[in-house]
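From the shared-data thread, chain only:
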Amino acid sequence: MNLCRTGPRMVEGERLVRSGERGSVSRHSSGVAQWLGQYVRFAVVGVTNAVVDLGVFNVLVAIWPTTNKLGLIAENSTAVVLAILNSYVWNTRWTFRQHADGSKRQAALFGFQSLVNIAINDVVLIKMTSYIWNVRGWPIWLTENLAKGVAIVLASSASFLVLRLVVFQQARTKTQP
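Structure, as tokens:
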């Protein structure tokens, strides 16, 4: 526990900064560090999500190969849902554990964020697959996996922002002094 003196009160979790005024505390620096730490944890969870997502997607595509958009959306959405379940467990227990309260509100917001994630993932996959396949003429398995990689990055970035700023926002503001 890092305590710094700021006038008549003590502030927990902030560090002393020499900015010309003795005893001043930089809340901005600790906020950036917290965001960075959460983003790193989110990225680690994201790698496990990507393994689940890509693994399930490729197994489904291998079992039921298709160039049909609805078939591809079904296979992709199945893989994304399993990755989202993995994400929920790890993000609530590790990445955002200080702010996860297990409330129905957070679960509902996480569910909403998941639907947005699936939509972004499906739209990017379909658009990128069509573009790469028509323009480059590459094998469909390569095309689908490249498109899937772009979809994962874009959907995950949107998810981090929604989780950080919306889903776990209420619990965070309750704990701040």
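The chain has one domain: 40-175.
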